[in-house]
Fold this protein.
Amino acid sequence: MWQSHKPLGAYDLLPAIAEAGFNSAPPTVYRALDFLQEQGLVHRIASLNAFIGCTNPEHPHQGYFLICQACGVTVELNSGSIERVFITVQTNWALLWSMRVSKSSDVVRTVRQRRNND
C-alpha cells in the first residue's frame, strides 16, 4: 500500500496478499485495513472507497488529500493549518460536511454551490 501513490481498494490488494502467501479472502483484507486504520497507519478515502498509507503515522491527525482526477495520484496534506482553514470555511459558510477524510474538490464544489445559492 505504501509503494503506491494512489488509493487502493480492498480488492486491489488481494493479489499482492495472495502472492505473499497470506489468506486473501476479502473479509481478512477488510479486517486488516480496519486494524491499520485504527493504528493510524492508513487513511480511508470514503469518496473513493479506498485506502492510502499515512505519510505521518507518528502524529495522530486528520487526513486531507489532493487527488488528481486524471491519474489518481494522491498527496496527503500534513498541516494543522489545513484543518483550521476547513473549520473557518465551515463556520463562515455554514457548511455541513464530515471532518473525516475529505477531497478538496468536494469542498470547492460545496463552496461554489453555497455561493451560487446566496
